[in-house]
Amino acid sequence: MIKHKIYNDNYIIKIKALLLAIMLIISNGTVASESKEEQSHVYLGGQVGVSHFLGACSSNAIECKNYVTGGGLYGGYQFNSWFALEGSWHDYGSPKTFYGVGDGYYSNATGVDLSVKLSLPVTDNLDLYAKGGAAYNYLSVSGNDNVHLGMFESDSSLDGIWEIGAEYALAPNWSLRFGTSVIDGIGNAKTGKSDLYFTSLGLTYKFKAKPEPKPETIVKLVPEATYYPEQVTLHFEFGESRFVVESKQWHSWNELALSVKQGQGKVSITGYTDAKGTDSANDIESLRRATYAADMLIKAGVDEERILINSKGSADPLVNEDLMRNESALNRRVVIQFNRRVGS
User: Fold this and answer.
1) Which residue intervals define the domain OmpA-like in the entry (predicted)?
2) How many angstroms separate the Cα of 318 from the Cα of each of 197, 234, 284, 332?
3) In whole angstroms, what is the distance from residue 21 CA to residue 23 CA?
4) Pairing of strands 67-78, 41-54
């Protein structure tokens, strides 16, 4: 039988309490971290590490190899960003103990377990996790001592298993896992009993569907609007306020008013008359015509603050009325100057 040192159960109780506290902290934190989206998926992985059989050797052992290489496979289903159900199989390795010539023991421990795994996202790529569940373990011991030659003992038991660690996403479907699991008391009185700590590095593959490509955003290039100076002349009958739009660009007053409204900057409106009246009468008449055109634009939606009204009476005639008396109507006019918008 394996001679092993008896450890205080209070030590393991403290370890269990610590692991349980960590799981509670993670479970509370994961509820608050639902903002991290995680597609439900199946995952598989493999791990290698070091098993420590604490208490496997007595103090009088000449040689004690209770740190051995182990490995395993695991897989599970990730329901959301923080909750998974996971199962695993492990070969925890073969510790050896020697007490003298012809007095030594060789052991091997394997186990399967089913656990709940809780994760707490720390960054976009890094999660902390804690696991807790039940493990079915098998321990075999063979060897010789001064009394028994060729002895063989084995034991299988259902034990609790706990694990804490961290997981780092290498890519959408690949991640690295580093953690330590604890099994309280593997073996029995015949095989020898020890507490098992397994520290490992694992590689996980997640069977996640490829995310659907986001629809490509089509950016329509809208040409910037440009503005060009424009001048339009309105002609009036003698003594009248009615006018005629003289322009090839606009076929009606409504079209002209809309263009002025969509323009930019100030709108200059200047009234003119012919030379038939007195200067004072012509000044009043030219102001009346300019004001009339301004009021019409304001009614069409042009901002009043943009409008500048001027009156020049009979100044700046288009035709010489002394030479072309029948063409004096050309001088009775209102000139509108503004910056016309071209493009979007």
Assistant:
1) 223-342
2) 106, 13, 19, 9
3) 5
4) antiparallel
Q: Is 169 left (phi over 0), alpha (psi -120 to 50) or beta?
A: beta
Distances 24 to 17, 19, 170, 181, 307 between C-alpha atoms, Å: 11, 9, 27, 17, 73
Going by C-alpha positions, the residue among 119, 114, 113, 115 that lies closest to residue 167 is 119
Tokens 């063979």 map to which residue?
142
Rounded Cα distance between 284 and 277, Å, is: 11
Residue 2: pLDDT over 60: no
Counting Cα atoms < 13 Å in the Cβ hemisphere of 24 gives 6
How far is 98 from 62, CA to CA, in rounded Å?
6
Task: Band the pLDDT of 13: cuts 50, 70, 90.
Answer: low
3-state secondary structure of 245: strand
Residues paired with residue 334 on neighbouring β-strands, in sequence order? 234, 271
Laid out side by side, the sheet with 307-311 consists of 243-246, 226-236, 333-342, 264-272, 307-311
CATH 3.40.50.410 matches 9-207: no
Average pLDDT, stretch 240-256? 65
Instruction: Output the CA torsion sign for 312, 313, 318, 323.
Output: negative
Q: What is the pLDDT of residues 123-182, one digit of tens each?
A: 989 999 999 999 999 998 887 766 556 778 888 999 999 999 999 999 999 999 999 999
CATH class of 226-342: alpha beta
Residue range(s) of every CATH 3.30.1330.60 domain in the chain: 226-342
